[in-house]
Fold this sequence. Notes:
By secondary structure, the protein is an alpha/beta fold. The chain is 35% helix and 21% strand. The chain contains eleven helices and 16 strands. The strands form four sheets. The protein has a seven-stranded parallel sheet with strand order 8-9-7-6-12-13-14, sandwiched between helices. The C terminus is likely disordered.
Amino acid sequence: MTNSDSHFRILLVDDSPVVRRVLTDVISGDPQLEVVGTASNGRIALERIEQLKPNLVVLDIEMPEMDGLATLAELRKKNRRLPVIMFSTLTHRGATATLDALTLGADDYVPKERNTLGLSAAIDDLRRDLLPKIHALCTRNHSSGHPPKHAAAPLRCVLPKLPERKIEIVAIGVSTGGPDALCKLTPAIPRDLPVPVVLVQHMPPLFTKLLAERLAMKSAIPVKEAAGGELIEPGTIWLAPGGKHLKVVRHNDGMFLQTDDSPPRNYCRPSVDVLLESITEIYGGSTLAVILTGMGSDGLHGCEMVRKHGGQIIAQDEASSIVWGMPGAVVRAGLADSVAPLLQISEAVVQRVMKSRTSVKSWNVGQVPTRGGYVQQSE
């Protein structure tokens, strides 16, 4: 069967026959998807990728002979564009390997562990998690030879633009493609950024702790997984813990982080909307929201609140996004003040923060951030 905009070929790679059967049943239940082959290890998978030319690979991490990481590394030497979704366990080892895979060029991941209420519920969870990711990544890759539909669209604001206020907090929301995007973004944020940064990355528990540790190793500014109860101060990036919403709350002696187990929003916990709504209640127009690559539209309602209060919004552009769902929703709604490639977003954040503050006289666009602060860029 030939490829079309509405039909995609999937290769499944897992050493367990049971897992391959479950995945085949889940994927084949979608009329737009076809499982064209399976493989029990990486060596077989690489051969079948050449033979079958799939549109996407679902790749297990732990396999005999050639595991998922080695397979991915070999695959990316020959094919940088073929979408790959890792199928990983919710263990320390599985989370570490998944983050390694995302660094090596995997596009997304799906956890193996599922609903404890029974097989039927577990399969429903898997279907709800996996199928939208397959569609989003296949559609992106299939249309990547064409110019982005929204790249040249002029920005429009659906609400009157209020006078810009001094930025007091930066809030970042990201999902699919987030770990790699954050590994590029956070090292470019200077240690002396005079506002706190709070961050939601859609990930399960344990994954976020390991991600925070990895980002902290690369970044000048400390990166920590929030536990709840921390006083918000400049000089730290706080990452929402997997499985919990993160909010900002006000007490008499300052602003603090709070986590809770309230129901998911947009099928997400943590949710970007929950974070942004709590921030705008306190900071109002002094909020700078940044929406990066991700599937779905989590963050859209939060950005509407930011805009209504007069805050500022930066969205990642389509060309540099793994999936232009979250930032695309914000741009199409006319909420973004600017749309920028990933590698320019840190600079845009720093410029907007510094421009909004009284200390702007001692800073200008000729300065660039370094691990220790700012240095004057040579002419």
